[in-house]
Amino acid sequence: MPEAFITPHVLSWARKRAQFSTDDAAQRVKVRPEQFLAWEEGKKRPTFRQAKLLAKAFHVPFGYFFLPAPPKQEPDIPDLRTVGSRTMPGFSLEFLDLYNDILRKQDWFREYRMQEGAQPLPFIGKYSATDDYRVVAANIRQVLSVDEARSSARNWEQFIACLIEQAEDAGILVMRNSIVGNDTHRPLSVDEFRGFALSDPVAPLIFINSRDAKSAQIFTLAHELVHLWIGQSGVSNPLLNREKKGKRGKKVETFCNRTAAEVLVPETQFLVDWDNEIPAQENIALLAQQYRVSQLVIARRGYDLNVLPYDVLQDFYRQAVQYDRKKKEKLSESAGGPKSDTMRKFRNGKLFSQAVAAAALEGRLLLRDAGSLLGIKPASLKQYADFLTGK
Q1: In the list 28, 190, 192, 246, which could disulfide-bond 250, CB 3.0-4.6 Å?
Q2: Given pLDDT bands bounded at 50, 70 and 90, which one contains residue 331?
Q3: Taking the model in full, what pTM does it have?
Q4: Distance in angstroms (rounded) separating the CA atoms of residues 339 and 150
């Protein structure tokens, strides 16, 4: 078997990046730890088969092993995540791989839109974080017809579905996933991030971590929309953040939180509707129904406007997580989860899916490349395209 002339310190970098010990790495290719160590020190070389197994185990492209030096891995997106008063640590391998995949999709869609003669979307970067948040919120509500979506929805689940549809109709890519690609062994962490926005004049994108409580995702969506309206990309952990003074990035997050809350539940009307004569729980239940948002979002609004303490907001989030967990357990005991085409549309978004499918079926994109972008077998693309059009 021919040897793979890999770069030893790239192999070492890949192992450490994947948080493998030398013993763990050696076990993956069924060699002794001292033999693997010899590969890292450049004294020996693995076979091509062994190197490919390591690339798969370390979640890196096989070609990386032959680079003269490790590639740059830190994402070029502002890190706006906080927990309490602490800044979050660096990004996980799962986030980095997810982010790179999302960037690949956005790059393709941008080029596709440019070829279609798309013009810059007028609302991207229309405002800044120094503008009146109420003005920004009013513009978001107008562009996305938020009030009409609210009146047509029967509950908050329908409301968030309507908002996503309106956002995609306006030209915003919206993707949701709880794992890296289609790999169920690589879950995303809510503790690490809840969502991110990639501002772009023709291919703006929002990603929502769907491992989060479903009732929390509507606030994340609104928060990331604000990021686009002020033309600021960023990865966020918004729902439970306390408002605080500090660096510019934190001011951006405070602005996005405040504006998102105003989009979903306007302050003036909320203060009129909140009844101090009845218990907080009753208030929250009534207003959640009225505004077509979850009780968790109403609790967040109550915290923003100083009618609820922070620990009550946290309690609502814990309840939402427990509710989701029980719902998933019941689903797994019944007929199972959503069908594969439904899940692909959920993960890739309808706007992106339709663009890729159309390009492939028109012969402008290889079926192989379309399958790679959508995470689908090329042979199933026609079926998926029919699903998207309701056939």
Answers
A1: 246
A2: low
A3: 0.83
A4: 27
Query: Angle CA(56)–CA(340)–CA(165) in degrees, nearest 5?
Result: 110
Place of tokens 């830190």: 74
> What are the structure tokens assigned to 109, written together?
């869609």
**Predicted pLDDT at 245:** 47
DSSP 206: E
* Residue 52 C-beta-side C-alpha neighbours within 13 Å: 5
- From residue 163, alpha-carbon distances to 141, 143, 239, 289 in Å are 10, 11, 18, 17
Q: Answer yes or no: are the C-beta atoms of 138 and 147 closer than 8 Å.
A: no
Q: How far is CA 215 from the centre of its chain?
A: 15
pLDDT in tens, 101-113: 999 999 999 999 9
Q: What angle do CA 348, 140, 192 make, to 5 degrees?
A: 50
- Residue partners of 4: CB distance under 8 A and separation at least 6: 45, 46, 47, 48, 50, 51, 65, 66
Q: What is the pLDDT of residues 293-310, one digit of tens each?
A: 888 889 989 988 999 988
DSSP assignment of 97-166, as one string? HHHHHHHHHHHHHHHHHHHTTPPPPTTTT-S-TTS-HHHHHHHHHHHTTHHHHHHH-SSHHHHHHHHHHH
Closest CA to 105 of 27, 31, 204: 204
61 to each of 3, 52, 82, 313, how far by Cα in Å?
A: 18, 9, 31, 43
